[in-house]
Design goal:
Radius of gyration: 20 Å
Number of strands: 13
Order of helices and strands: HEHHEEEEHEEEEHEHEEEH
Number of helices: 7
CATH topology of the largest domain: D-Maltodextrin-Binding Protein, domain 2
Structural class: alpha/beta
Shape: elongated
CATH architecture of the largest domain: 3-Layer(aba) Sandwich
Helix content: 25-40%
CATH class of the largest domain: Alpha Beta
Distance between the termini: 41 Å
């Protein structure tokens, strides 16, 4: 079946309008918040191309797992991959609900988190728990924190923070509307470093199909970088 699909893509590459399937591996937050408009616009521009999205918050080997390309935050890209920036830089945000801060004082320094209930993210494939990353006077600071919940889904952690279970460290593009509305309160913002945004990446040593090439070129032209 894979050989048939590859042949279909090769034939489509020779036509005026590319067709076939582009298999993408990407995290949930990118699919739901950052890149949905890109996918919609591409589908309208290239109706003969099917975007086959696998939502995966872990670190996937796109070659071994049979994907054409992946989308990840820039700091988590692997070697031997071409990369196309898709979004501006992002920052993590430490947030909690007003109800939570009604019971505990807001942390003034990252080390104060050691005395708070912190909601942790765990990668499903490696079972590694994310270490909260900060920056102080230009130096990196990483902390392992504890709390009553560990989950491999950012949406679950966000809901738990809204419910007052504790503090969560989540991408700002996920929580910004909730902070603006007052449902979540952001703390430690001066210590949260800027990091590279989302990138589309694909193998350097593999000739992209016509469908993938169309998506790469479209993403490069359409995605907001500034």
């Amino acid at each position: 079946m894979a050989a048939i699909d590859e042949a279909v893509n090769e034939v489509a590459a020779t036509s005026a309008t590319p067709g076939g399937t582009v298999r993408l591996n990407l995290p949930r937050i990118a699919a739901e918040l950052a890149l949905s408009p890109l996918f919609v616009a591409f589908a309208e521009a290239f109706p003969k191309v099917t975007l086959d999205l696998t939502i995966d918050d872990g670190i996937s080997d796109i070659v071994a797992d049979g994907f054409d390309a992946g989308i990840r935050i820039g700091g988590r890209l692997v070697q031997d991959m071409a990369a196309v920036p898709l979004t501006p830089d992002i920052r993590n945000a430490v947030v909690g609900s007003p109800a939570y801060f009604g019971k505990r004082p807001a942390p003034q320094h990252p080390r104060d988190l050691l005395h708070h209930a912190c909601l942790n993210y765990r990668w499903a494939k490696t079972h590694e728990v994310y270490r909260w990353r900060f920056e102080e006077n230009g130096r990196a600071l990483e902390l392992s924190v504890d709390g009553g919940l560990v989950a491999s889904d950012t949406g679950v952690l966000c809901d738990a923070a809204l419910a007052g279970m504790g503090l969560a460290c989540l991408p700002d593009l996920l929580v910004a509307p909730l902070v603006t509305s007052g449902r979540l309160v952001r703390v430690l913002e001066p210590y949260c470093p800027i990091q590279a945004g989302f990138f589309l990446y694909y193998p350097l040593n593999r000739h992209p199909s016509g469908a993938l090439r169309a998506f790469i070129d479209f993403a490069r032209a359409q995605a907001p970088i500034a």
